[in-house]
């Protein structure tokens, strides 16, 4: 990545937490992608987006969940990923290719601020899809987090759940899947806007009362 631009994937990029890119060395965004208007006006900021990948591994839908405040940065985030990134097919529990949905955040940093931003670092706190309150935590709060992989029906209901990023306590891992089933149905949609069956990755955080 060029020293003139910092575009960072802030959310976890662990290969067990999301569909696997076919080219692990290929950058999702590059310096050349920085929109001219944003560059000129020194616009920057994070873009949170949801990406839907079809059973062949091709991105078919990209939706901005949290805007950077600059339309061109939001548009470019999705456009570049559409053009550049491909994934290996995501399989359900029976080994059948299905749709997949992931949420990621990228942070656009203007070249004039690159060195300051790099020195200060960028927060990588992942957003929880569900926060579960328990009487007492057996481990520190920053460790009481579980990443799960759920197979969803075309109605958005949970068919199955496996732990993708375990905590240090199997009991919390089990609770993560149990509580994830209570998340209101949220279907995955294809490019035409039709609900489809597929896999979604979710983060479950535990906190003490």
How many E strands?
11
Q: How many discrete domains?
A: 2
CATH topology of the largest domain: TolA/TonB C-terminal domain
Largest sheet: 9 strands, mixed
Mean pLDDT: 87
Question: What count of helical segments does DSSP give?
Answer: 4
For the termini, the CA-CA separation is 43 Å
User: If classified by CATH, what would the architecture of the largest domain be?
Assistant: 2-Layer Sandwich
Q: What is the percent of helical residues?
A: 10-25%
Question: What is the ordering of alpha helices and beta strands?
Answer: EHEEHEEHEEEHEEE
Global morphology: globular
Class by alpha and beta content: alpha+beta
Rg of Cα set: 18 Å
The named CATH superfamily of the largest domain: TonB
Parts with pLDDT < 50 across at least 5 consecutive residues: 1-6
CATH class of the largest domain, named Alpha Beta
Tell me the β content.
25-35%
What are its keywords?
nine-stranded mixed β-sheet, two-stranded antiparallel ribbon, 18% helix, 4 helices, alpha+beta, 2 domains, single chain, 209 residues, TolA/TonB C-terminal domain
């Amino acid at each position: 990545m060029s020293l003139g631009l910092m575009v960072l994937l802030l959310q976890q990029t662990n290969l067990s937490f999301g569909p696997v890119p076919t080219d692990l060395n290929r950058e999702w965004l590059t310096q050349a992608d920085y929109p001219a208007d944003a560059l000129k006006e020194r616009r920057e900021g994070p873009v949170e987006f949801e990406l839907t990948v079809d059973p062949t591994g091709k991105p078919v839908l990209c939706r901005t969940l949290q805007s950077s405040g600059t339309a061109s940065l939001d548009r470019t985030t999705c456009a570049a990923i559409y053009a550049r990134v491909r994934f290996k097919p995501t399989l359900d529990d029976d080994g059948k290719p299905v749709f997949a949905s992931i949420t990621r955040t990228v942070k656009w940093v203007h070249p004039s601020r690159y060195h300051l931003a790099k020195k200060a670092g960028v927060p990588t706190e992942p957003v929880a899809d569900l926060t579960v309150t328990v009487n007492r935590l057996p481990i520190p709060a920053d460790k009481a987090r579980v990443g799960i992989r759920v197979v969803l029906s075309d109605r958005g209901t949970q068919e199955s759940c496996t732990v993708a990023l375990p905590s240090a306590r199997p009991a919390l891992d089990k609770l993560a899947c149990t509580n994830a089933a209570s998340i209101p149905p949220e279907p995955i949609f294809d490019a035409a806007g039709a609900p489809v069956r597929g896999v979604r990755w979710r983060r479950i955080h535990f906190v003490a009362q």
